[in-house]
Design goal:
9 strands; RNA ligase domain-containing protein; D-amino Acid Aminotransferase, Chain A, domain 1; Arc Repressor Mutant, subunit A; Rnl2_C; alpha+beta; 19% strand; 2 domains
């Protein structure tokens, strides 16, 4: 399994369904400065060196600007590795996501001392069954954990600037500050709203940095999106501890090494029952999205096996 994982696409504010904003009005979001640079994935496997990838998975570990920026991050990354190992001892790799700023070729704004630097904004872990994205609060929690390592490091110097933390309903988008706390001339590209209550995160670019407006989604596209979300919510309910016990009784498997096999059997069992109860989704064009439950199966199986072995 590759240590590279593509960062999820993030819509602009104008692309977000207004009804979705209302539905998520009580969600809590971190508002951070959107930095003008190049999106990087910093992949780490146990006992291996860091590998750096571009947004599309190209290995940039030997890029001159990247190497300069990584040298500045060296002490902090060593501390992060300790902190992540303590918080997530069951993983077999993880990735940090950051913006490479002050690159000699890819920049419009200068930050700080104008030397290549990586500002972190995301975090994902890799388990036996695949990748799971963590939210911005989880990245902050890693920073907090650093205070308990042998080499405490001020991680805030290497994270995108946090401007505020609010409920979505309390944000006036027209009154958001457009001043940067880092750039040479105080100009800010925009802001990113990192949702820690749900997966509705998005960005807002300020004048001069807007992306070309895309056509608004059609009523059919919005309806499809709502259908997928509703069906997925139904499917998630089929993942229960009782079902795990039922699957285990058929497999006679109790070893943690067999978790991937158990999760696969659990998923098949849940899918079969879901399709019997909801035949309208059989052969659906977005079935893969409907049946995506992330790491829920893995966590359920892990919990049940732990209870059995107590």
């Amino acid at each position: 399994m590759s240590i590279f994982k593509h960062w999820p696409h993030m819509d602009n504010l104008y692309q977000i369904d207004k009804q979705a904003l209302k539905d998520h009005a009580n969600d809590v979001v971190y508002i951070t400065e959107k930095c003008d640079g190049c999106n990087l994935c910093l992949g780490k496997e146990p006992n291996q060196d860091w590998r750096i990838f571009s947004r599309n998975g190209e290995d940039w570990s030997q890029n001159r600007d990247v190497k300069t920026a990584m040298e500045r991050l060296k002490l902090m990354l060593n501390s992060i590795d300790v902190a992540v190992s303590k918080q997530y001892p069951y993983i077999n790799g993880y990735a940090l996501y950051g913006e490479l700023v002050n690159s000699q070729k890819l920049h419009r704004l200068w930050y700080g001392d104008k030397k290549p630097q990586i500002l972190l904004f995301g975090f994902a872990i890799r388990t036996e069954i695949g990748w799971r994205f963590k939210n911005f609060q989880d990245l902050i929690n890693v920073a907090i954990q650093l205070n308990f390592t042998a080499h405490p490091t001020d991680m805030t110097r290497f994270v995108v600037p946090i401007l505020n933390k609010k409920r979505l309903k309390d944000i006036n988008f027209e009154q958001l500050s457009q001043n940067s706390v880092l750039t040479e001339n105080g100009i800010c590209e925009g802001v990113v709203l990192h949702n820690i209550s749900s997966d509705l995160s998005f960005k807002l670019k300020f004048a001069g940095f807007e992306e070309k407006a895309k056509s608004k989604p059609t009523a059919e596209e919005l309806e499809l999106k709502r259908t997928i979300k509703g069906a997925n919510s139904l499917f998630v309910n089929y993942f229960t501890e009782q079902r795990v016990y039922s699957v285990l009784s058929k497999m006679n498997a109790t070893d943690a090494k067999e978790i991937p096999k158990i999760v696969k059997a659990l998923t098949v069992d849940a899918t079969e029952d879901f399709m019997k109860d909801h035949p309208e989704f059989v052969g659906h064009e977005e079935l893969k999205k409907i049946l995506n439950v992330g790491a829920k199966g893995f966590l359920l199986v892990k919990k049940v096996l732990s209870q059995q072995n107590e």
